[in-house]
């Protein structure tokens, strides 16, 4: 089993979600929760951007124990020195240096030549290595770049001392096949035989961030950059909960594992949603309200007979309550009977004790009529149904 490092960037790329601004105390709370979750690296911020960010990274470096604490820096000397200063007190720190790899970004944003990008990258990685022996290097927008230039850039970064090379699909453009093939090329042409980790950093503009990150793992990546609930720039980043549970649930396929304490996932996901003000969509994999809810009669009947009929993982494994039966017009008799039993009504009773079969049949018909009118049926609706049918229950 390969051990995949989970690099959480909720506090840096996640905070770049439009409309999100976490205050100091909220960031510290999330950083401690990430440590309890068992992430390997916390990207705690981008210290050059503001004094507030600098102070927050410094405090996380001082207080949070367990994960390596990383900070982001462009290739400029001032960025790297500021990141190094903020990380001073961390027992294990990483400087994450980034530039751009695609022609469109190099020409129009950096206004440099590719040669200048190479030179500044080498200089920056060497400088960062003077402060820490853990230096990560990223070239933004790799999937729209010239792959030969990408290879040249990363080779130069490794020779300058980068210990982790991160391959960002900054605008979520790549397909799993293309991204996986590039990672394999990086592995075979520049990493093979060296003590350098390959990292994946995917954005979700076309909904492929998780698939792309997993394709990278299949082709040699040993670090995944991700955020809780997949928050981040535009459509967001790879979701931590999705990649972690995919690797766990399909370990037969990936032959890999992470160090995440999966039972903490739901709690941290809710905390991030509450503090960022970004709701989790109900149908979101792993952490959405509906992720472990069964609605249709056929599914409910199956799950009541044997969980694995419609479940590939236990809700408890990610820190949630056991699977929920949603009572509505699709629900079947088995789920109806179970819901009444859970509410304390004795089903399968005799005429003078509890709900007998005949009473249950009448109530089930009334339940279906109500569900047709009302949609979802809650516990109070069921209680009202039974109370109103007291006559037939004792008939
Ligand atoms: O998406 C991106 O390219 C980034 C880099 C800073 C790694 O977030
Ligand atoms: Zn990003």
How does this structure look, described?
Homodimer. The protein is of the alpha/beta class and 395 residues long. It is 45% helix and 13% strand. Strands 2-3-4-5-6-7-8-9 form an eight-stranded parallel beta barrel, surrounded by nine helices. A two-stranded parallel ribbon has the order 1-10. Strands 11-12 form a two-stranded parallel sheet. β7 (164-169), α7 and β8 form a beta-alpha-beta unit. α1 (24-37) runs parallel beside α2. The model has no long low-confidence stretch (mean pLDDT 95). 3-methyl-2-oxobutanoic acid (KIV) is lined by residues 13, 98, 138, 140, 166, 168, 170, 201, 203.
Average of the residue pLDDT scores? 95
* Count of extended strands: 12
Small-molecule binders here are: 3-methyl-2-oxobutanoic acid, zinc ion
Helical proportion, percent range: 40-55%
Helix/strand order, N-terminal first: EEHEHEHEHHEHEHEHEHHEHEHEHHHH
Strand order within the widest beta sheet: 2-3-4-5-6-7-8-9
Structure described in brief:
The chain is α/β, with parallel strands linked by helices and 395 residues long.
How is the topology of this model organized?
Elements: E1 2-3, E2 5-8, H1 24-37, E3 41-43, H2 51-63, E4 68-73, H3 77-87, E5 93-100, H4 103-110, H5 114-129, E6 135-140, H6 147-160, E7 164-169, H7 176-191, E8 197-202, H8 209-218, E9 223-226, H9 240-249, H10 251-254, E10 256-257, H11 265-276, E11 293-294, H12 297-305, E12 324-325, H13 333-342, H14 357-374, H15 379-388, H16 390-393
Parallel strand pairs: 1-10, 2-3, 2-9, 3-4, 4-5, 5-6, 6-7, 7-8, 8-9, 11-12
The protein binds 3-methyl-2-oxobutanoic acid and zinc ion.
